[in-house]
Amino acid sequence: MTTEKHTPSPGSVRRVACVGAGVIGGGWVAHFLARGYQVTAWDPAPDAEAKLRRLVDAAWPAVTELGLAEGASRDNLVLAPTLADAVADAEFVQESAPEDLALKRDLLARIDAATPPGVVISSSTSGYAMTEMQVDCAHPQRLVVGHPFNPPYLIPLVEVVGGERTEPWAVRWASEFFEVAGKSVITMDREVPGFIANRLQEAIWREALHMVANGEATVEQIDASITEGPGLRWPMFGPCLTFHLAGGEGGMAHMLDHFGPSLKSPWTRLEAPELTSELRDAMVRGCEEAADGRSTAELVADRDRAVIAVMRAVDEARKGRS
Ligand SMILES: NC(=O)c1ccc[n+]([C@@H]2O[C@H](COP(=O)([O-])OP(=O)(O)OC[C@H]3O[C@@H](n4cnc5c(N)ncnc54)[C@H](O)[C@@H]3O)[C@@H](O)[C@H]2O)c1
């Protein structure tokens, strides 16, 4: 990978800085500590240290259950007195300050000014494009979005994407670093507001709010419709491969040819795209790739095993409810 002169290799990183230590920043701190990193955090709130240590303590049983990396310890956390102190020695920086564009622009420029050259800086933003956040940075080439899911110490996904002024090496470096640090990475080629998973979540969320607002469904019905329904299938297969199986032996091709006209039905407030032959073929091809040579019967067996495992695990977890 072509990087800058001072960029450490992703696998050699030992020191990570977390700027902003609320719900997400604190979750990142817990994750990096559990993976054995030395973590320096900075947060301007007066009670930030006590809150952060409480969050890390609350997360520790879960990360311990998942398995700590060698040398992992809560003692490897240092609260820095200033932002400059937090990032001075960092080999990677994760920013998790409030979702406010002006604040992020200013903060990222200050982080950039104080972070050693060649070190990659990542933002946890839920929806801003890096292009709009990196405008005041002197070295915008090393800034990426690394969008996590709450809590970052449990949910593996990170969506990585650069801005117009980010250089490709920084996106590749961040993706590789997050993999080494135990995350599941989706590297995006282009900026899309909300990235991928938030767009999908948001579609369901907005529809849920519409249904409650219109008296069409209650909160309880909406939650049960997912936890007792499609939610059980999604841990194994995402929505595309799940619908591939809805087409039986004919897979996604049959599913689209059969149910394509339903796209015109008023089943959601979200407008359906035109089901062109290009879109149909892209879906069919994508599902074939995801199936990776498995027959329908093999996919059904995989799904069924997973649904049973998930149902049993959720039952167990419900029994232990506090
Ligand atoms: N909460 C989620 O589910 C979630 C999920 C993914 C991404 N995110 C993103 O993560 C970021 C942080 O969100 P959060 O939910 O942790 O918010 P939060 O309010 O819990 O935490 C924000 C923290 O930033 C600190 N802060 C305030 N001003 C700051 C500054 N100038 N510099 C550094 N720190 C500052 C606050 O003291 C606070 O501790 C946001 O960009 C948000 O969109 C949130």
UniProtKB/TrEMBL annotation:
InterPro entries to which the protein is assigned, alphabetical: 3-OHacyl-CoA_DH_NAD-bd (IPR006176), 3HC_DH_C (IPR006108), 6-PGluconate_DH-like_C_sf (IPR008927), 6PGD_dom2 (IPR013328), L-carnitine_dehydrogenase (IPR026578), NAD(P)-bd_dom_sf (IPR036291)
Gene3D superfamilies to which the protein is assigned, alphabetical: N-(1-d-carboxylethyl)-l-norvaline Dehydrogenase, domain 2, NAD(P)-binding Rossmann-like Domain
Catalytic activities: carnitine + NAD(+) = 3-dehydrocarnitine + NADH + H(+)
Places the protein is found: Cytoplasm
Domain 3-hydroxyacyl-CoA dehydrogenase NAD binding residues, every copy: 16-190
GO terms of molecular function: carnitine 3-dehydrogenase activity; NAD+ binding
Enzyme Commission (EC) number: 1.1.1.108
Segments forming domain 3-hydroxyacyl-CoA dehydrogenase C-terminal: 194-262
Protein family according to the UniProt entry: Belongs to the 3-hydroxyacyl-CoA dehydrogenase family. L-carnitine dehydrogenase subfamily.
Function (record text): Catalyzes the NAD(+)-dependent oxidation of L-carnitine to 3-dehydrocarnitine.
The protein's assembly and partners: Homodimer.
Designated name of the protein: L-carnitine dehydrogenase
Record organism: Saccharopolyspora hordei
